[in-house]
């Protein structure tokens, strides 16, 4: 890694080496170019940066703390720390880029925000941003996830968003993205599609990463202040990969820090039972960009499954795909069962109920701690588990 990493990647046309780009219709390409030009013009301006910093401090409650898990570490070994993005307003890291995207929309004169959501955290965050800036908001969500993440659906509606149920295909995150794109194409002049992760056509993987870099900047400084050194390992869950790119960005130049991206191993590693894109996928194109992609025998995006709705996506961010090929980030899996175990362990040992997405990273940190008893492990606790309580109780219960 070089000091100019963030200037080098992506390239001007949105590529992270062979991944990324914008494979989209001409009408959408024109709008993406406008968004790209506006982002470059506005994001470097004093007024934009000043307003975003004020929002982060006085509205979001940043910086979020780094916390040492004393009892979890005592039980499993190692020294496990959490970057508490669950304490960010709305309960997850998603608001970091949603406020940035909505602020950009305001500067561009857009009237409406459109997005997809899986676990609902991106939908809640975008609905919150829309309410803050006085914009309309439309959230597309698969019917399976609507049933699974009911508390977040209620929150979105209370915040004033229109929730559009998606009933085709597997009725989960991929189909929600398809539906949101179709809605956006109807009026790209007055609306902006606020993608919920470091995925999609350029410039969204870059924009979302840049807005999420605050997590890594804070975490690096906080951890060093607490311990006098950098962590041996940094761990984050990966679906699309926004929370992971956020925290990894603070440590990319620190070769002594091992970076781990944790994917959902689901029920098994049979096709359709997991969403282990980096582990079992191969390069392909989905939703207007090139990345590692889980594919069926016809080369189409394959069905996926995860106990965590926010991770059941067959693709992944193009920057993650590049970092895998560069061997800078290690990508591995944990199963649904290991995730649920970690969900209850963190809840009962530390009094912190994690989102099921984040519980994947906690599960992997526990495994690392058992293997590397003297190591320090920083986990990005990307969200809180309020949204998952009904699902966990209905499927696993208190006797788990």
Explained architecture:
By secondary structure, this protein is of the alpha/beta class. The protein folds into two domains: 22-56 and 94-205, Rossmann fold (3-Layer(aba) Sandwich), CATH 3.40.50; 61-92 and 213-395, Rossmann fold. Helices cover 45% and strands 18% of the residues. The chain has helices spanning 5-8, 26-42, 46-60, 70-76, 95-108, 121-133, 143-148, 150-158, 173-186, 204-227, 242-248, 277-280, 318-325, 336-350, 356-371, 389-395; strands at 15-16, 19-20, 66-68, 79-84, 112-117, 136-142, 162-166, 191-193, 233-237, 258-266, 282-286, 289-293, 329-335, 376-381. The strands form four sheets. A six-stranded mixed sheet has the order 3-4-14-9-10-13, with helices on both faces. It has a four-stranded parallel sheet with strand order 7-6-5-8, sandwiched between helices. A two-stranded antiparallel sheet has the order 1-2. Helix 6 (121-133) links the parallel strand 5 (112-117) and strand 6. Helix 5 (95-108) crosses helix 10, helix 6 (121-133) runs parallel beside helix 8 (150-158) and helix 10 (204-227) packs across helix 11. The radius of gyration is 19 Å and the shape is globular.
